[in-house]
Structures are given as C-alpha cells and as structure tokens.
Automatic annotation (TrEMBL):
<dbReference type="InterPro" id="IPR036249">
    <property type="entry name" value="Thioredoxin-like_sf"/>
</dbReference>
<dbReference type="Pfam" id="PF06999">
    <property type="entry name" value="Suc_Fer-like"/>
</dbReference>
<protein>
    <submittedName>
        <fullName>Uncharacterized protein</fullName>
    </submittedName>
</protein>
<keyword id="KW-0472">Membrane</keyword>
<dbReference type="InterPro" id="IPR009737">
    <property type="entry name" value="Aim32/Apd1-like"/>
</dbReference>
<keyword id="KW-1133">Transmembrane helix</keyword>
<keyword id="KW-0812">Transmembrane</keyword>
<feature type="transmembrane region" description="Helical">
    <location>
        <begin position="314"/>
        <end position="334"/>
    </location>
</feature>
C-alpha cells in the first residue's frame, strides 16, 4: 500500500491540482443520467494505452474497425458502443471482447473486420472465421487515455495500480480483470470506469462510475462486485436498452450531455470537427488536441410564435376599431332622431 501512495504523491502538485483527484471540478457535476441508453459494448484490444494517439481510431486496426462499425451501425439490432482497450492480461492486439454477452474472439485482422461486423454485430451470430470463447469473472475498464485528456492520463493509471493491489491482496487475480480503455465520454468525471460484473442472478450489466479515486477502489470491489450493490454517489448509470414511446421522450429530456448523447447531437451544431472535450479548471484545457467549440443552433420556433401572435393582435385590434366605429355611428343616429 505504501508503494502505491508514494507513486500517487509523485505526481507534480500542479498537475494533481489541475488534472488529478484534487482538482477543483471534482464532484461538481451531476453524474446520474450521463450515460445514454445502449445494449452492447464492444472492446477492441490494441497496443498499450501509453502509445495511443489522441484519436486512437485514426490509425491501424482501430481505424479499420471504426469505419466498418460506423458504416453498418444503422443495421445493428442493438445500440452498440465501440471502445479500444489495452492488450495484456491474456488479451493480444486484435482480440475483441463483447459485453454483456461475455464472449471474446482472438486475433482479428484488418481483412477480417467487415465479415466480423456483419456476422457478430449485424446478424448477432458467431463469427464464421473465428472461435468464440466465453469470458468469466468481472471486468473493470478504466479510462486512461492520457493523450486524449490529461485528467484521464493522471487519474486512470493511479486507479489501475490501486485496483491491481487490492485485487491481489484479496486473492482475486483470476476472477477480476482490470484494463485501460480509451475515451468513453465525460472527461470532467475522471476517474471514469465501467464495471461488467454478474449479479446474484448471473446477469451481467455494464455500470459506469465517475469521480472515482483510489480510496473508492475497495468499495467497488467489496460492494459492487462482491455484493452487486451500486455505489450511488459515484454512479453515472448503467447499460440499458432505450425505452420506447412516451417513456423514451422523458429519458432524453433528462439526459445530461456527455459528448455522446442524443440530446447533445440534436441541440448543437459544430463548425469543423469536435471531439466533445471539456475545459479544465481555471480556464486550462484538459485536451491535448484542441477542437472548435460547438455552436448552438438558432431556433425558428420563437420567431414563428411571435409571427402568429402578431397576426392575432392585428385581428383583435381591427375588431376593436370596428366595434368602436359601430357604436359611434349608432350614437350619432340616436342623437339625430332625438
């Protein structure tokens, strides 16, 4: 334990205060509802998180997979997320993990991508060119994409180290697996992590946590993974299918945009390319890659409303003038007759 504390404290004080667990924005945002509805999460294993580009999907196998994923996304029966995770711990580059199905495929290559997406993600069948293997145990994915966001680069590795230490001390190294992952949305909530763990009934669901610190790691292991109890004050939400009808409208209305939500896509218009990055404390940007800020659309609803009101007011005014004129004429005739 002493070694972990020393490593965490080795982070320069200035970086820890701006990007680490002591930064001013910690606990300042509402976590609940910051995860949009989805029903499947695909993780592609690729290199070490320390070597990832800010846009890890812009090179090699992740680029090929992301393109095929985007091209066929409309054909998916289930809303699906794609995230890159680090190799190691039994996985190698090209391995694919699918949750909550708890299945994996080994050594996917560039030439395999289209067929894999077609078989597994579109048709919901086993990949015809690979061997499907079952996953067991619990998986914790920690956002440690430091080249994309400095906060994740400071918080992620410290959390992974603490997890490994606590898991080892409990003798659970063969049952709980911790992996770094690329950006999952919500920089400001770092440390961010997703836990895939079976509940008492054996059902697996991905649960998202934010503002996690090394001090919270024992609770994640002993409360969430061991007992299936959600840590409410750190909960961002969990994997769930999008409700239909009126209930769906309520969910969208109360979502907190996090860079990936339907609300944000509908309400903002970007000039150029945007990565959905947040600003750090004291005006310091957390992103290693600067992008334009989204610009809100001007709506025409208000203008239409005023136009309709103006027409109504004109009609009412004309009616009032006509009524007054009628009364005046009648009064004039009355005076003459008298």
């Amino acid at each position: 334990m002493g070694e972990v504390v020393e490593n965490i404290n080795a982070v320069p004080a200035s970086e820890d205060e701006l990007y680490g667990f002591k930064r001013q924005e910690m606990y300042s945002g509402a976590l609940a509802g910051s995860v949009a509805p989805y029903g499947r999460h695909v993780f592609l294993c690729y290199k070490s998180h320390e070597t990832w580009l800010p846009r890890v999907e812009s090179e090699g196998l992740p680029q090929r997979f992301a393109k095929s994923f985007k091209d066929r996304r409309a054909d998916f029966a289930v809303e699906t997320k794609l995230t890159v995770c680090g190799g190691g711990g039994g996985e190698s580059d090209g391995d694919v993990l699918v949750f909550p199905d708890m299945i994996s495929y080994k050594a996917l290559k560039d030439t395999d991508v289209d067929a894999f997406v077609e078989d597994v993600l579109v048709n919901g069948k086993p990949w015809t060119s690979g061997i499907q293997e079952e996953l067991s145990g619990s998986f914790v994915f920690v956002c440690a994409h430091g080249s994309r966001d400095k906060r994740c680069g400071v918080c992620g590795p410290a959390l992974m180290e603490k997890f490994e230490q606590e898991i080892g001390s409990r003798g659970l190294s063969e049952q709980i697996f911790v992996k770094p992952c690329s950006h999952i949305g919500g920089h400001k909530y770092a440390g961010n992590l997703i836990v895939f763990s079976p509940d008492s009934a054996g059902k697996v669901s991905g649960h998202w946590y934010g503002y996690v610190t090394p001090d919270d790691v024992p609770a994640v292991l002993d409360q969430h993974i061991a007992k299936g109890e959600i840590i409410q004050n750190l909960s961002r939400g969990q994997m769930r299918l999008k409700p239909e009808g009126e209930e769906a409208e309520k969910v969208v209305e109360h979502q907190i945009p996090n860079g990936n939500s339907v609300v944000e896509r509908d309400s903002v218009e970007t000039k150029g390319f945007t990565g959905g990055c947040c600003q750090g404390t004291k005006g310091v940007s957390c992103c290693q890659e600067q992008t334009p800020e989204p610009v809100k659309k001007e709506t025409s609803v208000k203008q239409k409303g005023f136009s309709w009101m103006e027409k109504e007011e004109v009609l009412l005014g004309a009616a009032a003038v006509g009524a007054i004129a009628t009364i005046a004429v009648a009064y004039s005739i009355y005076r003459r007759s008298g």
